[in-house]
Amino acid sequence: MSQRYTIGALGRQAGVNVETIRYYQRRGLVAEPKKPLGGIRHYGEEHARRLRFIKEAQKLGFSLDEVGELLSLEDGLHCREVEQIASHKLAVVRERMAQLGKIENVLAMLVGKCHGNRGKLRCPLMASLEIATN
């Protein structure tokens, strides 16, 4: 017999908060099982797998909209489309990494200037940021 979970047990099993599950249901990412008359909804292992998929995709930087797009292709027959989505995400990540590298270099230079600053001179980092905003 397959495992059945209340929403609280499902949250513990998948490592998410109950409110997160409800939010994903409102977004259409996780199906809400029918509630038996006078009873409690029960979720299956497929719900837990889907929640874990969503969380893992988010760890890789996919937005919930992108996760929804991936989930719409989950039948396994759309590998090309999934590859295109993932390739686009990879390009975005690489661009962001390049931007972060530039930020790191500038901050390292400014911190170095601050470290060497002695006396009553204006802080070079603060001065640089002030100039950049003008």
**For the largest beta sheet, what order do the strands appear in spatially?**
1-2
Mean pLDDT across residues: 89
Please mark out the parts with pLDDT under 50 across 5 or more consecutive residues, or reply none: none
SS field, number of helical segments: 6
The largest sheet, given as strand count, sense and whether it forms a barrel, is: 2 strands, antiparallel
Explain what you see.
With 134 residues, the chain is an all-alpha fold. Helices cover 66% and strands 3% of the residues. The protein has helices spanning 7-14, 18-26, 45-59, 64-72, 79-116, 124-132, and strands at residues 4-5, 43-44. It has a two-stranded antiparallel ribbon with strand order 1-2. Helix 1 (7-14) crosses helix 3. The longest helix has 38 residues, at 79-116. The chain is elongated. The model has no long low-confidence stretch (mean pLDDT 89).
